[in-house]
Amino acid sequence: MRVVDLFAGCGGLSLGFQNAGHDIVAAFEQWDTAINCYKENFHHPIIQFDLSDTDNAIERIKAYTPDMIIGGPPCQDFSQAGKRIEHDRAELTECYAKIIAGITPRCFVMENVDRTRKSQAYAKARSIFKEAGYGLTEIVLDASLCGTPQKRKRFICFGIKDKEDNFAFDAFTNRLSKKSMTLRDYFGDTLGFEYYYRHPRNYNRRAVFSIDEPAPTMRGVNRPVPKGYPGHKNDACPVNENLHVLSTSERALIQTFPADYKWIGSKTEVEQMIGNAVPVNLAQFIGNTVNEVMEEGNI
Fold first, then answer.
1. How many other CB atoms are found less than 10 A from the CB of residue 197?
2. Which of 114, 160, 188, 245 is deepest in the core (most CB within 10 A)?
3. Domains contained in the chain, CATH given
4. Which residues, listed in sequence order, are joined to residue 29 by a DSSP beta bridge?
5. Whose CA is closest to 67, among 30, 109, 7, 35?
6. How far apart are CA 128 and CA 99, in angstroms?
7. Is 195 helix (H, G, I), strand (E, B) or coil?
8. Is the dihedral of CA 235, 207, 191, 9 positive or negative?
């Protein structure tokens, strides 16, 4: 199917759907650094555009005649890391829904943090999807059960025109792994370390993890072990001066980007892009599930 990716960032969702066999014909994004990174890794166009301008966005996107639109509106105002207050970025979820309703592609996929489902912005978006005639499958996926060595939960709304709600729920759940993927499962013994530090949001949370468990969510910041870190009773090992801290490239690999993915921007910008991205293997899992549903329904 012809696919357009909205709020494409550095390309995690695009690459996963492309790996699943979908034809990504265009992407839209506003952040110039992410656009430059995207351009280095894909051959199709990415257009710098403010998607809150929904009327003009609809006209621009229509030109690519998409069968499917995919995208993850910026999620900082829904995330556990934020203050849990909905602001302007949350309104982009409603903008995404208005674009879907204005173009009415055969189907769409919206991805976001798991808290999105309980937000006012999503309630408005959902009403728009339903009024436009879409059946919806809404599900929270754990990336560690979808081929990704990371405990990252994402909310997925998959809509198909003129279908009953929950049409794809079984297709998603039946394809989930029975066991969470660990770093050792994914990388084998190639990492060169057994334990590593991931800076916590606060010191009530653990910070030291083992490669024999899924990684915690890769966030948009990456900090060294602070001198004042007090340790946590659930840390996988005691903190010492030799404790490994994940590099930028290791974080990208845990997000299941390929080793040859080209990263453009400052270290801070690249860390932010990595943290914002959809894990490539999770995106591929979703893309393959879409294929299965579309084939079974002869859509």
1. 21
2. 160
3. 2-180+276-296 (3.40.50.150)
4. 48
5. 109
6. 10
7. strand
8. positive
Tens place of pLDDT per residue across the chain (299 aa): 999 999 999 999 999 999 999 999 999 999 999 999 999 999 999 999 999 999 999 999 999 999 999 999 986 544 444 444 444 455 899 999 999 999 999 999 999 999 999 999 999 999 999 999 999 999 999 999 999 999 999 999 999 999 999 999 999 999 999 999 999 999 999 999 999 999 888 889 999 999 999 999 999 989 999 888 889 999 999 988 889 999 999 999 999 999 999 999 999 999 999 999 999 999 999 999 999 999 987 65
Structure tokens at 183: 């770093």
Residues serving a catalytic function are: 75
**DSSP conformational letter for 189:** T
Q: How far apart are CA 209 and CA 216, in angstroms?
A: 8
Q: Copy the structure tokens of residue 293.
A: 């549903």
CA 198 → CA 22, 186, 245, 246, distances in Å?
34, 18, 7, 7
Query: Which tokens go with 92?
Result: 């982009």
What are the beta bridge partners of residue 159?
108, 136
Secondary structure of residue 187 in the 3-state scheme? helix
Residues in CB range of 15: below 8 A, 6 or more apart: 41, 42, 257, 280, 283
Closest to 62 (Cα-Cα) out of 50, 74, 54, 52: 54
What's the farthest any 2 CA atoms get from each other in the chain? 59
